[in-house]
Amino acid sequence: MLRQALTELGLTGHSRVLLDPPANAGADSTLALVHSPTTGKPIAAVKLDDERSYNAAIGRSAEAFKRWREVPAPVRGQVVRAIGNEFRASKKALGAIITAEVGKITSESEGEVQETIDIADFAVGLSRQLYGLTMPSERPGHAMREQWLPLGPIGVISAFNFPNAVWAWNAMLAAVCGDTTVWKPSLLAPITAIATNAIAQRVASAMGHEDLFTLVIGRDDVVGERLIADARLPLISATGSCRMGKRVGEVVAKRLGRSLLELGGNNAAIVHEDADLDLAARAILFAAVGTCGQRCTTTRRLIAHEKIADALVARLVKAYSSVRIGDPAAEGTLVGPLVNARAVEGFAAAVAAAKLQGGTILVGGEKHAQPGLPGHFVQPTIIRAPANNTLPIASEETFAPILYVFTYRDPEEAIAMQNSVAQGLSSAIFTRSAGLAERFLSPAGTGSDCGLAYVNMGTSGAEIGGAFGGEKETGGGRESGSDSWKAYMRRQTCTINFSGKLELAQGIRFE
Ligand code: NAD
């Protein structure tokens, strides 16, 4: 599958990918083995960067930035348009690489590439709309305006679970803003990154723009730490765990750089007694089980009104029992494997902790044995909290398909429970009451404390047109739509005196 997809993309001979790695590849520090989550077996190896090749890559990106920023923004948009079209043509093959490397089911892998296509379209439009403001000057014969300028080469760190789209959210916007991108992907998904970057750079090069998109691949202590400390990169946009974000935030702040952090979530869905339970159950099923629970926006906590909790949970248990687990490339599969053995250990540890803490397993809770596929499969799991709603493990983000169920009587109690965790990414309420929905979205900020708040929809599957990101330990960054582009530019306030006289602000006299 991997070889065929790379062939379709014209990348079989790529110098960084070894489809038939040597027997000692695992012991070679210049290589990283890539494993299939579906079989647990190595499928390729990739060549890693060292200090020298890292420095050369950043140098090329910095030089390319000096040329690229001179290209008018709408012309930059035309390059991004051509890149988006190439991703359109490559959707199936890229999707197959994502499935091979991280185990997403085919429709979700292709959906991820669609997100890349969508953000490229969005960026093309944006290339004619990098608007500044004008404002009245307090001085006669003066004009004031604000303009947005290219920032520099941008460092992008991506998580394994969106190995294609996270780069695009950053790189497509950065490109129309006049920036170049240096991408450090996860070592769990380097081939998707190699293919994605190669497609984009091939198009840009053919249009006369070398090194707009650069890739550095390596271990966190060799390449990751070097990247975040690198003063040549004015912005580091990092997606991953809260643990990683705390480290990146600290190192970038120390050099007074900018960081854009998109970190872990612990997302809840509140289901009120007046909700449409069929709709809620379907939405929660996809949000909790999709991508095998490995989305930052996965629903991890269900907060159900006590009057409907049993009925809703019964629907979910039935649906969970019929979800088809298996080969993510096979038609009809809804749940593929977790990404690696460590993720399975995390799943098992969370289930064990929940049991110890008084939780009741309603469905799942075990590893899943898939005939012929010795990969990292687990059963989607629902665990009911004890009657006192105390289940400490539920305040952690376990990157696996575990849904913890809590109950409430009063909506205020439900909102407080939803907000009680350290992370603040995504949230949802299911209700037919317009009043309660508005209470959840209160403009006073007393409703959901998350960056994303949905009504009668699940917590995952954001559209690219809105700003994406979360609060508290989720890091505060915003990517993708709305005015997220401003993070990739620097703002300049310009004041022009055309009066012929010098006048100081605030009426100061200095004569
Ligand atoms: P991770 O934190 O293990 O790794 C993420 C990336 O950070 C990888 O590229 C990794 O190599 C890099 N990294 C780690 N330490 C680093 C360091 N010291 N210096 C530089 N780079 C470093 O996360 P993961 O397991 O790949 O992904 C899962 C996590 O990502 C979950 O917590 C999930 O919620 C989060 N995530 C968040 C979003 C979002 O938009 N908020 C999106 C996807 C995933």
Structure description:
This protein is α/β, with parallel strands linked by helices. The chain folds into 2 domains: 231 residues, Aldehyde Dehydrogenase, Chain A, domain 1 (3-Layer(aba) Sandwich); 203 residues, 3-Layer(aba) Sandwich (Aldehyde Dehydrogenase, Chain A, domain 2), CATH 3.40.309.10. A 7-stranded mixed beta sheet has the order 13-14-15-12-11-17-18, with helices on both faces. It has a 5-stranded parallel beta sheet with strand order 8-7-6-9-10, with helices on both faces. A 3-stranded antiparallel beta sheet has the order 1-3-2, with helices on one face. It is globular, with a radius of gyration of 24 Å. The N and C termini lie far apart (78 Å).
CATH topology title of the largest domain: Aldehyde Dehydrogenase, Chain A, domain 1
Q: Please count the beta strands (DSSP E, at least 2 residues each).
A: 22
Give the tally of structural domains.
2
User: How much of the sequence is in beta strands?
Assistant: 15-25%
> What is the highest CATH level, the class of the largest domain?
Alpha Beta
**What would CATH call the architecture of the largest domain?**
3-Layer(aba) Sandwich
Helix share bin: 25-40%
Shape, per Cα inertia axes: globular
Cofactors and ligands present? nicotinamide-adenine-dinucleotide
Continuous helix count:
14
Cα-atom Rg, whole angstroms?
24 Å
Question: CATH-wise, what's the superfamily of the largest domain?
Answer: Aldehyde Dehydrogenase, Chain A, domain 1
Intertermini distance: 78 Å
**Sheet of most strands:** 7 strands, mixed
- What low-confidence regions span 5 or more consecutive residues with pLDDT below 50? none
